[in-house]
Design goal:
314 residues; 14 helices
Length: 314
Amino acid sequence: MTSPSPPLGSEERSAPRGVPAPAERPAGRLAELPARVALVVVWSSGFLSGTLGLRYAAPYTFAALRFALAGLVLLTVAGIRRRRLPRGRRLLHLAVAGVLVQAVQFSSIYAGMDLGVPSGLAALIIALYPLTASLLAVPLLHERVSAGQLLGLVLGLGGVALAVAEGIKLSLNCLPGVGFLALGLLGISAGTVYQKRFCGEMEPVSGNAVQLLAASLVVLVPALFVEGWDVHFTAAYWPVLLWSALVNSVIGVGLLYRLLQRHGTSQVSSLFQLVPMSTAGLGALLLGQRLGPLTLAGLVLATAGTLLTHRARH
């Protein structure tokens, strides 16, 4: 996110044949390892903050507060740094991407979990994002997905399924919640492809402020007229809200967009295969949840698949 995204296909034209682009060299991959690890951990923590936040607020109300708080913080920072807000068509593109990535995805995740979908199953459904985003990127962004990348995606998804298989019991009562999770999956898949296609040169602070505030306005409607602004402001709720707004919305999405500007959609989205396992690890560390043998085996398989996806060349 610190530099404009190059035109689509410029990587192939600028690098001599047989010489990897700078971002693809081993040193470049190693330099961005902290950002990739941070993206997985921050995104994983969102499932935990969502689970805790739903104890004090209804799904759309919680989402509206999260987006509004994060957007106002970034808007203030943009003003201090004298960053111009986007206008015209650029403003519209940013708003659309923000509604898809933020509003559609996260409010749907909250609604699904509020309807009884276990957090592990929610993480599993959203972990299908690498496959759906890659499939969308092929016709819309003209990205190529190699056989090695497809194999890595399949291995990663297999590891995801294996890791969250323990303890998941799906009943008919959860089916409406699964529908919301499917909507969230569609939101992040379409949103990241739209972001890379139309918002590649987004200024990170002002652009994210626009996207978060647009998302807050969209989810404010069901929060007010369907849920009746159902929230209980307690001492225990404020840390959860601040974490979800500042860490999950600001830092998490910022890391996602930064990596999307530098790499293909398939490579970046494959990192999300590690989110369910990272969520399980954080749950064991912070909430005392048990990591069984299937979870550990799934972690190994998904890690192998992710490494294969990142190393596979187009």
